[in-house]
Design goal:
By secondary structure, the protein is an all-alpha fold. It contains eight helices and no strands.
């Protein structure tokens, strides 16, 4: 088995094993079908997030960075749909709980993290749709996108880990850990941060030269 195949198998396992483990959970026997759909939409959304930093960083084998950047917004759109199904299903099955969560008065510790991540996802989608009308410069858009992406990943990981539901603990933890690791790796290597640091260094050096 080649290295490329191994990487894709590992990614597929990281996403599919938590879904399969959740599907085998005995808790599903007491759940409403719509509630189950909403729950699995949340799991799928977490899996889709894993591909986003890999696509934007060009780390998926067999896909060039250029193709990855083109696929990235489509995965983002699918992520928005998954979140809408997740939130919509929970709203229909339990409106009072969702209202408490949206108002940040829910007694469950995982709720605020999920709501924050949800609004950050919607904010990215809205900025992406309106970036030309708003006249956002590419650099401004990238920085805003990345800052919101950090909020999305951190909020989603904490939300997912705090929820005690159908997801199996170890496979869920592995997926969340991989998502965090890939996000940190890609963020650390992005040009926009290096360019910012370089520009800052050049400005400091210029000021020191002028003072001398």
């Amino acid at each position: 088995m080649t290295r490329v195949t191994l990487i894709w198998v590992a990614l597929a396992a990281a996403v599919c094993v938590p879904i399969a483990a959740a599907a085998a959970s005995p808790l599903l026997a007491w759940r409403d079908p719509l509630y189950i759909l909403a729950g699995f939409a949340g799991i799928v959304a977490l899996g889709l997030m894993l591909f986003q930093p890999l696509l934007i960083g060009g780390y998926l084998p067999g896909l060039s960075a250029r193709i990855g950047r083109r696929v990235h917004p489509w995965i983002g759109g699918a992520l928005v749909v998954a979140v809408l199904i997740h939130v919509g299903g929970l709203w229909i099955t339990s409106p009072p709980d969702m209202i408490d969560a949206l108002l940040f008065v829910s007694p469950t510790p995982f709720s605020p993290w999920g709501v924050i991540a949800m609004w950050a996802i919607f904010a990215v989608a809205l900025l992406a749709a309106l970036r030309r009308r708003l006249g956002l410069r590419p650099r401004t858009w990238r920085i805003a996108h990345m800052l919101l992406a950090v909020i999305i990943v951190v909020g989603s990981v904490v939300h997912g880990m705090l929820v005690e539901g159908t997801m199996e603990t170890f496979s869920k933890a592995a997926l969340c850990a991989l998502l965090l690791a890939m996000t940190i790796k890609v963020m650390a290597g992005l040009r926009v941060w290096r360019k910012r640091a370089t520009s800052r260094g050049e400005n400091i050096a210029r000021q020191e030269t002028e003072q001398a």
